[in-house]
């Protein structure tokens, strides 16, 4: 079942239903399933938590809760909302991504999109998320979400409609995506070392001892091969691409100090390059008025480099975004 903020006929997902005041539960005639669900209604557990605790499934549990409310057994605060569950999910998803994605992703277009494609995408999303589309309908908490989504869509379109800032933003986003993809590949778990051919507790015969030594030599050769591949990447300036090979080399030869030292150096250089890219994009996001995104990028770069100046810029951006709590937290770390 799709997650929603409001359950029709019951109220907000985070609200805790309660027994009706003055109700004598001993006089109720309940089936086993109804009794099971009612036992979870204590004024503390939220609707979402009750659904998670119930072995009956979400649909069945909600049906029982609605019937209990209709029969005045339990009480909840109803929130009137005319949106379908699908519309609620779509708005929730778009609102959640406002400060998680770049402007192209926000408009649901490719980085290389031309102005005509940007305009077409913006108009399509405007029809879907413009608050006036729902004029006269009860929106509950979705009214504010729609307003925020439409405002950010308009801001994204306005910013990307101007050259050369669109081209520069596209360049930075392309670099960030490529770096993210390489980082994900580098973060993939390395292959485990070869397992022993035979249980250690069984005596090794002379012929087997020779094969065991040969296996060790093959493993050492594999480690050296990965190390040499990594060094070629580093000499070509591709530090991120070197990390997977260096990790494999250290897994295969965990006691080799040279491999471990080079892996640490590659990871440090990756952090430096990643931070530099984050700062460049943060500057663009500031220009686009996306203060929260810029703050997150400055903060991430500051933590990667342990740079008090970048953390101070992150704190300023958080403050401008109206998040003084986060600004104070970052300032305390940069002091």
> How would the global form be characterised?
extended
What's the structural domain tally? 4
- Structural class, by secondary structure, is mainly alpha
Question: Which regions are unreliable across 5 or more consecutive residues at pLDDT < 50?
Answer: 196-211
Rg, Å, rounded: 29 Å
**What would the average pLDDT be, to the nearest integer?**
83
Helical content (DSSP H or I, runs of 4+): 55-70%
DSSP, total strands? 4
- DSSP strand (E) fraction? under 5%
Q: Count the helices. How many? A: 14
Strand order of the largest sheet: 1-2
Q: Major sheet: size, sense and barrel closure?
A: 2 strands, antiparallel
The N- and C-terminal alpha carbons lie at a distance of 47 Å
The helix-strand sequence is EEEHHHEHHHHHHHHHHH
Protein model, in words:
With 335 residues, the chain is mainly alpha-helical. It folds into four domains: 6-75, no CATH class; 85-161, Helix Hairpins (Orthogonal Bundle); 172-191 and 203-271, no CATH class; 289-334, no CATH class. It contains 14 helices and four strands. The chain has helices at 32-38, 47-53, 58-70, 85-96, 103-107, 115-129, 142-160, 165-186, 206-235, 239-252, 257-287, 291-305, 308-320, 324-334; strands at residues 6-7, 11-12, 18-19, 74-75. The strands form two sheets. Strands 1-2 form a two-stranded antiparallel sheet. A two-stranded antiparallel sheet has the order 3-4. The longest helix has 31 residues, at 257-287. The two termini are 47 Å apart.
């Amino acid at each position: 079942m799709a997650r929603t903020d409001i359950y029709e006929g019951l109220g907000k997902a985070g609200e805790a239903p309660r027994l009706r005041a003055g109700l004598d539960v001993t006089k109720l005639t309940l089936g086993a399933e109804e009794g099971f669900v009612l036992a979870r209604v204590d004024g503390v557990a939220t609707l979402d938590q009750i659904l998670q605790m119930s072995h009956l499934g979400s649909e069945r549990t909600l049906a029982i809760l609605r019937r209990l409310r209709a029969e005045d057994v339990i009480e909840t605060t109803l929130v009137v909302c005319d949106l379908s569950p699908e519309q609620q999910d779509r708005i929730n998803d778009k609102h959640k991504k406002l400060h998680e994605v770049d402007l192209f992703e926000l408009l649901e277009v490719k980085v290389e999109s031309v102005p005509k494609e940007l305009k077409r995408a913006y108009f399509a999303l405007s029809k879907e998320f413009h608050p006036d589309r729902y004029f006269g309908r009860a929106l509950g908490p979705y009214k504010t979400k729609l307003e925020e989504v439409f405002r950010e869509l308009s801001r994204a379109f306005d910013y990307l409609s101007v050259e050369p800032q669109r081209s520069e933003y596209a360049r930075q986003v392309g670099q960030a995506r490529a770096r993210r993809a390489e980082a994900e590949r580098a973060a993939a778990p390395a292959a485990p070392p070869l397992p022993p051919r035979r249980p250690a507790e069984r005596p090794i015969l002379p012929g087997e001892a020779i094969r065991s030594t040969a296996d060790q030599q093959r493993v050492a050769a594999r480690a050296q091969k990965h190390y040499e591949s990594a060094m070629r990447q580093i000499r070509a300036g591709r530090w991120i691409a070197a990390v997977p090979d260096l990790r494999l080399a250290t897994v295969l030869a965990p006691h080799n100090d040279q491999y471990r030292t080079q892996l640490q150096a590659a990871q440090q250089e990756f952090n430096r390059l990643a931070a530099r890219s984050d700062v460049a994009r943060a500057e663009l996001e500031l220009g686009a008025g996306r203060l929260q995104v810029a703050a997150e990028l400055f903060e991430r770069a500051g933590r990667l480099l342990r740079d008090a100046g970048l953390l101070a810029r992150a704190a300023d951006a958080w403050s401008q975004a109206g998040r003084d709590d986060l600004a104070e937290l970052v300032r305390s770390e940069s002091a």
